Amino acid sequence: ESVAGTSGQAAHHRGGGSTLVGKRGRRIREEQRRQIGKRSISHQQDPLPSRTKAKAAIAGVMNKRPREDEPSSSQKRQFGAGGGYGEQEGYSEERISAQRVADHYSARSNQTLEERENSPIIHLKKLNNWIKSVLVQLYARPGDCVLDLACGKGGDLIKWDKAKVGYYVGVDIAEGSIKDCMTRYNGDSDQQRRKKFSFPARLICADCYETRLDEYLREDAPFDICSCQFAMHYSWSTEARARQALANISALLRPGGTFIGTMPDANVIIKRLRESEGMEFGNSVYCITFGEEYTEKKFPASRPFGIKYKFHLEDAVDCPEWVVPFHLFKLLAEEVMI
């Protein structure tokens, strides 16, 4: 039931839970889709401060546990980040970093098929796409309502279409990526990519690690499946952002719904750092660099958030990222009922 990424690790939530709620659930979903109608794709700019992507290492699935004391929809919409992390004012540095990530991905243009095939990391891109395809095909059901966090330029739209999902909402911090995703959905100028998708969709530009998404998606929720591919580690700059990311997923998934995602393997990153002579390691196509504050290469368990490094991947990524201790990610997910 678990899906392993390139590190051979998997993240399967031990709480279990179904991926569909039976005939009654299907009737509810069908009724919601009738109310939604054949909605054309839209681009909604988040009026709040908008400020979210990178390599495969851990892939897996978590099921939101059905509970007898599950909050009602109105109660769930009041669910915030919580956690006693204090005021947001001290996080200006993290917001600047988040904006750097957004600017980086907004500036990247969609590649033609020829450019893609000539990329120095084409095999890595194909591996990453295979990992995502496996997750989508295993856990998405026909007619599912999908929430895609950090959807980027819409590279996974075809995967969701093959899974025959019923409705799609994509959220991304980068406005340029959202516009490219809209173009891809509506049919872009590359005739080889032109495709009509079978599901209605909605796109929102927002920082899903800082914005309360339930305030914008009341009419769309609950979702059957939520996906966050190669992006959850961008939330780990502070505890507040990590909690808000998971709070959004918990508030918007239906009971028994499924969360799938991928993120870098913190154990591999730290191991490679400690094996290197300096503060960076890599090869001809990628480089990971840690700051001088980590010269001793020690990472206290009491400070698991904000462990930043710079990640460069040729023809793909050049921005800050954060280490995510996976055992802590699972504990935090359990705390917010995923």
UniProtKB/TrEMBL annotation:
Q: Does the keyword Heme apply?
A: no
**GO cellular component terms given for this protein:** nucleus
- NADP as a keyword of this entry, yes or no, is no
- Where are the residues of the annotated region Disordered? 1-89
Positions binding S-adenosyl-L-methionine in this chain are 132, 150, 172, 207, 229, 234
Domain of life where this protein originates: Eukaryota
Localization terms from the record: Nucleus
User: Which Pfam families does this chain map to?
Assistant: mRNA_G-N7_MeTrfase
Keyword vocabulary terms for this entry: Methyltransferase, mRNA capping, mRNA processing, Nucleus, RNA-binding, S-adenosyl-L-methionine, Transferase
A GO molecular function assigned to this protein is:
mRNA 5'-cap (guanine-N7-)-methyltransferase activity
Q: What is its EC number?
A: 2.1.1.56
Annotated MRNA cap 0 methyltransferase domain residues: 119-338
Its chief place of residence is: nucleus
Which reaction does this chain catalyze? a 5'-end (5'-triphosphoguanosine)-ribonucleoside in mRNA + S-adenosyl-L-methionine = a 5'-end (N(7)-methyl 5'-triphosphoguanosine)-ribonucleoside in mRNA + S-adenosyl-L-homocysteine
The enzyme's main class, written as a single word, is transferase
Q: Spell out the protein name for this chain.
A: mRNA (guanine-N(7))-methyltransferase
The opening ranks of the lineage are: Eukaryota, Viridiplantae, Streptophyta, Embryophyta, Tracheophyta
